[in-house]
Specification:
Helix content: 40-55%
Shape: globular
CATH topology of the largest domain: Rossmann fold
CATH class of the largest domain: Alpha Beta
Order of helices and strands: EHEHEHEHEHEHHHE
Strand content: 5-15%
Length: 262
């Protein structure tokens, strides 16, 4: 199979680094016009230049803070009101900080809900009419394997990620008659800044070295290594392609076999 996304417009959230950046680069490589979305305008202005444009793609960016859903809503509304439509939406943003759920503060849940569910919801509302009109729609949510098995020490994240997964499944059912697919990618431990923060936090809490925590985490992964961001991007690009037209409402773990359930 050769994936060709020429003529498709893709909005990729949290795309200045990590998984989001890898997805944006790969979608552009496959021919899509990519809009990068994040809160750091200066960084966006730099990294958008890294995107492949040899087929004449036109790339741009939107600035919005996902912890402030009203900013996200305003940004996407302004874009679509300018008669711009998207066929591919990648919902992705940095996960809530680590910590047990029992001691979590109310604002931690509210902030995570805003960033991961409400902002994603506003984006879907903003792009879905364009998807209907163009006859092509792919909504892909980058979540976590915690929607299958909660991860220790990620209380708030486990809670909110589960809510996003249920929201996604509900959307998939509602949008399926229109030919719009909605799927979740569940990355395992991936070589990003967030993984580094998690390892450092565990090391401090458990009074262990970073090397010891790193070894313990790798021991839980049958493939014996962390994922590369590009490996998550490959899965996203397949789900964004015409080949995935009959796949909707599913969770796709990309975790090296770590998740202990089907």
């Amino acid at each position: 199979m050769i994936i060709d996304l020429k003529g498709k417009n893709a909005l990729v959230c949290g795309s200045t680094k990590g998984i989001g950046y890898a997805i944006a680069k790969q979608l552009a490589f496959l021919g899509a016009n990519v809009t990068m979305m994040a809160r750091n305008g200066a960084l966006l202005e730099r990294v958008v230049r890294d995107l492949h444009a040899e087929e004449g793609q036109m790339h741009d960016f939107l600035v919005a803070d996902f912890s402030k859903p009203e900013q996200v809503k305003a940004a996407i509304e302004e874009k679509v009101q300018a008669h711009y439509s998207y066929q591919i939406l990648i919902n992705n943003s940095g996960g809530p900080g680590p910590g047990p759920v029992l001691g979590a503060k109310e604002e931690e849940f509210v902030n995570a809900f805003n960033a991961h569910l409400l902002s994603s919801h506003y984006l879907v509302q903003g792009v879905v009419n364009g998807m209907k009109q163009s006859g092509y729609g792919r909504i892909i949510n980058i979540i976590s394997t915690s929607v299958k098995i909660p991860l220790r020490g990620l209380g708030v994240s486990n809670t909110i990620r589960g809510a996003v997964a249920s929201w996604s499944k509900t959307l998939a059912t509602e949008l399926a008659p229109m030919g719009i697919t909605v799927n979740n990618i569940l990355p395992g431990a991936t070589g990003t800044d967030r993984l580094k923060q998690i390892i450092e936090g565990k090391a401090q809490k458990q009074n262990e070295s970073i090397e010891e925590v790193n070894h313990e985490m790798l021991a839980e992964i049958p493939m014996g290594r962390f994922a590369e961001p590009i490996e998550i991007a490959y899965a996203a690009c397949f789900l964004a392609s015409p080949y995935a037209a009959y796949i909707t409402g599913i969770n796709v773990p990309v975790d090296g076999g770590r998740t202990g359930s089907l």
